[in-house]
Amino acid sequence: MKKNKYDDDRFFSQYAQMSRSVEGLKGAGEWHILQKMLPDFIGKRVLDLGCGFGWHCIYAIEHGAKNVTGIDIPEKMLEEAQKRNSSSFIEYKCMAIEDFDFQPETYDIVISSLTFHYLESFINICRKVSSCLTKGGSFVFSVEHPIFTAYGNQDWYYDQEGKRAHWPVDRYFNEGKRTAVFLGEEVVKYHKTLTTYINSLLQTGFEICELIEPEPSKIMLDTIPEMKDELRRPMMLLISAKKKVNLQTDEFQSIVN
């Protein structure tokens, strides 16, 4: 995805008003779960794929990371990251995630938040992450859940009275491009099955540590009336994995090639 919707002035203005943009991590509905899945950052070199405003980058530094590289393609995102979450230990790079190519064992931890559903190939990303991670290194990420992305338009089916009847799921095994409406604009995303997410990790030298379909926090359920509908279907998928410690050289070469 070489061009990005987030560099559109109107769309970015809408995004900047979302709670996760204004409040940072505490405004992200999945943070109460994702935070517990993150590894120990002390002394670690961290890569954030799709860093956005840099909230996860600064969190890693505040929790002892040695240095952090955050990459993303929208220039507006990175401008905000520099304003809100700058540090001499954070380097923000403007590049497409599909194009990153770091030296082997450059990082100890790779994280990513709600980014990979914008990319067509997940296994290619896994190969790159496996290559740049140290053995035993952590790979923790969130994506939109396959049930959420399958149908495409990412909206409820409404009954004749305009009430939310159910969440449509269709074309589940037909992976590929979907056009959703997000913040009033059409956005291209790529649907992948749960099988693709898991097998791509296993085939590129990772061990699965945790897989969680997060529910809203009790605070959100109590304070935001429409949040109760988020218990009717999963919106996100969180996965924590580790690169195998005993990955052999020939096995590694077969992965990266």
TrEMBL record:
Matches recorded under InterPro entries: Methyltransf_11, SAM-dependent_MTases_sf
Residue ranges occupied by any Methyltransferase type domain in the UniProt entry: 47-141
GO biological process: methylation
SUPFAM superfamilies for this protein: S-adenosyl-L-methionine-dependent methyltransferases (SSF53335)
MF-aspect GO terms: methyltransferase activity
UniProt cross-references to Pfam families, sorted A to Z: Methyltransf_11
Keywords (A to Z) from UniProt: Methyltransferase, S-adenosyl-L-methionine, Transferase
Species of origin: Bacteroides faecis
PANTHER family (alphabetical): METHYLTRANSFERASE, UBIQUINONE BIOSYNTHESIS O-METHYLTRANSFERASE, MITOCHONDRIAL
Gene3D superfamilies the UniProt entry points to: Vaccinia Virus protein VP39
Protein name from the UniProt record: Class I SAM-dependent methyltransferase
